[in-house]
Design goal:
By secondary structure, the protein is mainly beta. Helix content is 10%, strand content 28%. The strands form five sheets. Strands 1, 2, 3, 5, 6, 10, 15, 18, 19, 20 and 22 form an eleven-stranded mixed beta sheet that branches. Strands 14-13-12-11-23 form a five-stranded antiparallel beta sheet, with no helix packed on it. Strands 4-8-7 form a three-stranded antiparallel beta sheet.
Length: 382
């Protein structure tokens, strides 16, 4: 197998970008705010909340070259731990923790991102205007530092969060998203209403990237709010996200040591590191996280074909997904790519994955990256 050297990319100069849907979303005025019992407070925010003087600032200055550090990748796990994280199959303190899912900005102007390396499962899904957004899912968010920048909600991300029984963290949302949130589809914390407590504005980002790209939070702030609100933090009917295996699965498929995935108009590259059995992810020239110097690695990469279209009459080009049902996909691990099918029976049910013979897919224990794409042709093996 090909060995891939660690390469730190120079960060390109920040450039102005004009992308549809990147403005700050506000709640639908026709919908009354819901009570905090579903994650909102009813008091309206000020037009432009003030910065928090003691708020943490970016760990990496925008435009700076990250400092190299010892590798932080997780080695292959070939024995089931006594207590397993249900999102990764790796060792954890408990199996019934309620996950937390955070909307993360993914436009080039808003890089570097914070908190991605700590995500147990990371989704990249098209939003609108060709851009994609990320949903980072954590088994124990209390151990995560700065997270962000946090962006507004879309229905497909709410469905994903609901499928994990996760607390959903976002800042604003589309009209369709607020309909779902006000209906109580997920317990959520909204930066529109919680800025100054759970959310804060990063002064450096606000100056160099713009107001809408400066909303940040931390694992400690999220945890403190949930504890204060006495939110249920034990998962309902907890179950593993996948059928985890500790046998170091190598799929009987095509070689995929280095490949790209295009989600919307954004392309991510993955390079297999055989010494770890993991893939390093690079996008917009970044393979690192702004929290420290850790790089982004995933034991498993899923690419799922899913139909979506622009919502009729939506001036910003927001998308509607046909996510309840089934479709084709790829499971990529250990330098090989396997054809699979996925089935999603309901928005609050966990997605299931199946091999070509119809059996439930076995997945290597470790972190997973999941893409929703319009076509499997969006995957290109180098």
């Amino acid at each position: 197998m090909k060995k891939t050297a660690f390469v730190w990319m120079l960060v390109p100069a920040l450039a102005l970008m004009l992308l549809a849907g990147c403005g700050t979303d506000t709640p639908d005025p026709s919908l009354p705010p819901v009570s905090e019992s579903v994650g909102m407070i009813s008091s309206a925010p000020s037009a432009e909340p003030t910065d928090i003087p003691d708020a943490p600032t970016s760990a990496t200055t925008p435009g700076a070259t990250p400092t190299p550090a010892p590798d932080n990748f997780t080695m292959k796990v070939t024995e089931a731990p006594a207590v397993a994280n249900p999102l990764t199959g790796l060792a954890a303190q408990r199996t019934d923790a309620r996950p937390v899912a955070v909307m993360i900005n993914n436009i080039k102007k808003a890089l570097p991102q914070h908190g991605l390396k700590d995500a147990d499962i990371l989704y990249e899904i098209p939003a609108e205007g060709g851009i994609s957004r990320l949903l980072a899912i954590y088994n124990d968010v209390s151990k995560v530092g700065v997270i962000g920048s946090v962006r507004s909600s879309r229905p497909i991300f709410i469905d994903v969060a609901a499928s994990y029984d996760a607390v959903y963290i976002h800042h604003g949302g589309s009209p369709e998203a607020y309909e779902m949130l006000n209906a109580g589809k997920v317990y959520h914390l909204d930066g529109i209403y919680l800025e100054g407590s759970v959310f804060y504005r990063d002064a450096a980002r606000r100056k160099t990237m713009g107001y809408e790209h400066s909303s940040m939070t931390t694992g400690a702030k999220i945890t403190a709010k949930l504890l204060k609100s006495q939110v249920r933090m034990t998962a309902n009917a907890p179950a593993p996200a996948f059928r985890f295996s500790y046998n170091d699965i190598v799929p009987a498929g095509n070689a995929a040591e280095s490949f790209t995935v295009r989600t919307g108009n954004y392309e991510a590259s993955y390079d297999f590191l055989p010494e770890y059995g993991t893939y390093m992810r690079t996008q917009h020239g970044w393979s690192s996280d702004a929290n420290g110097t850790g790089k982004l690695d995933f034991r498993n990469v899923f690419v799922l074909q899913m139909k979506y279209s622009v919502i009729s009459g939506d001036a910003k080009g927001r998308l509607k997904f046909e996510n309840i049902g089934s479709g084709k996909g790829y499971y990529i691990t250990n330098g090989k790519m396997q054809e699979i099918t996925w089935k999603w029976s309901a928005a609050n049910a966990r997605m299931k994955y199946y091999a070509a013979d119809g059996s439930e897919l076995s997945v290597n224990a470790g972190k997973s990256m999941i893409h929703f794409v319009s076509s499997l042709g969006n995957v290109k093996v180098k």
